[in-house]
Amino acid sequence: MIRTPESLAVLTLDYLQEIEHASFPLCEADPAKIKCVELLRAVGYLDATVTPVASEGRRAHVIRITWMGQMALANQKNRPAASVRLNEKRSH
To answer: Is the pLDDT higher at 82 or at 74?
Structure first.
């Protein structure tokens, strides 16, 4: 599956919503979730650590959702679901 920047944005925002009420710190071992953590950390939405790519048993440890991540979540609640917007854009 080829991931476009738009599809990555949808995945990462979906992940952010998924962990919104989680107990922190949170440990992730799934490669797709680790990618989401990396992307969200890069834009400042999460405080997290990720073991290096070459590490066996790679993990992401999410410490907290930052204030910027909280703002992104608040903005998402005021908009239609990201996946709905993505599908609408494709149908035009």
So the answer is: 74
